[in-house]
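Morning F.,

Quick status update on the modeling queue. The single chain you submitted on Monday has been processed. Sequence for confirmation:
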Amino acid sequence: MAESKYIHPVIGEITLSQTRRATRISIAVRPSGSVRLSFPPSVSARRALAFLEAKVDWIAAARHRLGERYKPHRPFTDEEIEALRRAAKVDLPARVERFARMFGFRYGRVTIRATRSKWGSCSADNNISLSLYLMNVPEHLRDYVVIHELCHTVHHNHSAEFHRLADRCMGGNEKKLRRELRSYSTTG
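Structure tokens below.
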């Protein structure tokens, strides 16, 4: 994956990510206001930046919406992080095991980390890593993240097949749950 920074005259710093995982040009605006432009190797940086240029107003609107939704939070204290870690180590591995049995998934080990960049991940060896900050979201969204990562043990991508499997496991609610999770942040 090739990743670099680009300074846009209106938007500011943007992360350019040319990756094989991308199937199209896409823009992500994070709650922090940071912007990521992802595109596949078959697309030139020039073409991706032209796409970004056409979306400047959309990016500004997304930042505004996120600013309304995500009010600044105070950072977690060390004691709060340790309490979240203890709770996560009890809750999340048991949740993974329950859903793996329910849907017939096979996975390696489960690790709990203080990851702020994403809620969870699944390695090529089917080891699942989950953020301890999941303990701050409602249980049904913890279930969503766990099932999402378990689906990656079958499809190590975000292909149509992956989304069909995830949607089936989530009772036809994958998109709704994904949207709902976006209203939460790992930052406190």
